[in-house]
Amino acid sequence: MQPPHPSGVCSPGDFHESHSLTVIACVTLAATHSRMAQLKYLCGFGNEFSSEDPRCPGSLPEAQNNPQVCPYGLYAEQLSGSAFTCPRSANKRSWLYRILPSVKHKPFAPAACGNLTEKWEGAEPDPNQMRWRPFSIPKSTDKIVDFVAGLHTICGAGDAKSRNGVSVHVYTCNTSMINKCFNNSDGDFLIVPQQGELLITTEFGKMTVEPNEICVVQQGMRFSVDVFGETRGYILEVYGAHFELPDLGPIGANGLSNPRDFLCPVAWYEDRDVSAGYTVINKYQGKLFACQQDFSPFNVVAWHGNYTPYKYNLDNFMVINCVAFDHADPSIFTVLTAKSTRPGVAIADFVIFPPRWGVADHTFRPPYYHRNCMSEFMGLIKGHYEAKEEAFQPGGASLHSIMTPHGPDAECFEKNSVAELKPERVAEGTMAFMFESSFSMAVTKWGLETCQKLDRSYYQCWEHLRSHFNPNWKPRKH
Q1: pLDDT digits (tens, 9 = 90+) for 227-280
Q2: What distance in Å separates the CA atoms of residue 66 and residue 407, rounded to the nearest whole number?
Q3: Which residues are catalytic?
Q4: Which residue(s) pair with 337 in the sheet?
């Protein structure tokens, strides 16, 4: 095994083919993260992984999945992320070897959903451009709010029961989940932290996720979130599909988000009795349900498979950009995609706008004015987005619905229409992102009214656009 790369990502020789055992990458956390001095990860996207807690060597059964008696007296349990009969290339499953199986719990009962919803009829349709100021984080001195209680649905479409749809949430919280875990039976969560680090404990192990990183916790995986102060971020939820790496086509074999940069936790277990009761919260058909059990669900001693949670550092994105003229479509910045049944059309894409060089000649370099057959929800992790540098703030958001026009504000247009076209760094110190979906997303009542963050003056950023039309214009003679 090669030594871990100092950045925490596997070094060039570390990525193996998916049928191979994957090299473990050690990630040494900064001094501010001394509470978790060192975590380990497996590297690669969608690999066939194997992991066992080093406290129980040999806990993975040899040469079979379901022996009559498992090592250490463990229970074998399969977690399936796809139909059994899916083609091998799309078949997702992992085998978990645990101290007690997850079936051991009291019955589920309805639980308060708060502002988490799948009711898209709660507000009237509104095709206007929308922008939200930064969403408020509750003060711990006022109210204790954990990750689940801090989930708020902004917009979405479709239906978890029919397994076809998408939701966009924001989370705002100030305390860790204590003797409580979350399980999403409806779909996958793509979590984008904006403020505050997350320590996410899963059945597969632990992972830390900081702003400028993302993580995906796939359907059915139980997880708990620890936070270390006031914390905020965004969530893209998809029903009926899993996130994949985008196809590269003429780009070739390498580029965008490379498989070797994705990290998956290694096995870690706790054998802990919880006599006071451990709460499992299940999101099922858009509602929350809770059940009680008397042990920790994070009792998986070993596991193997290709259906896992994973994380990714956005700094590792290999940017493709135009080097001659014109502004390329934002699809070249796609990190992950959840495909629909229509070729080339996504249920949802996760797109970023990272720091890069702008060198295009004879070109208006910021994003062009646009109407789109997709819905575009944008958020800002840090910095200033190039097309709207002032009022679009970190922790806020915008939504440009299907066929609603949008583009640079008046100030951006005027400045960049006369700017000297020399090589320049674009978006330095910034990270904006977009959840793009083929669904026409409805905004919830919380997003329109309750949150009190909707900026109803947003339209005014285009009010000062003026006509530059000159009927007497003549082309220059060369």
Answers
A1: 999 999 999 999 999 999 999 999 999 999 999 999 999 999 999 999 999 999
A2: 56
A3: 327, 370, 376, 400, 406
A4: 244, 349
Is residue 59 pLDDT above 60, yes or no? yes
Cross-strand partners of 217: 189
How many Å apart are CA 251 and CA 255, to the nearest integer? Answer: 7
Q: 415: part of which helix (H) or strand (E)?
A: helix 410-417
Name the residue among 187, 196, 75 with its Cα closest to residue 145: 196
Give strand ranges (E) for 174-267: 180-184, 188-195, 198-202, 205-209, 213-217, 223-227, 231-239, 263-265
Is residue 19 very low, low, confident or very high in pLDDT (cuts 50, 70, 90)? very low
Q: DSSP letters along 434-471, please? A: EEEESS-PEEPHIIIIIT--B-TTGGGGGTT------T
User: Token match 């702003």: residue?
Assistant: 211
Distance CA 310, CA 262 (A): 7
Residues, the chain: 478
3-state secondary structure of 474: coil
N- to C-terminal Cα separation, the chain: 63
Closest CA to 130 of 441, 465, 462, 454: 454
Residue type, 30: A
Which tokens is 58 given? 């040999």
pLDDT at 388: 62
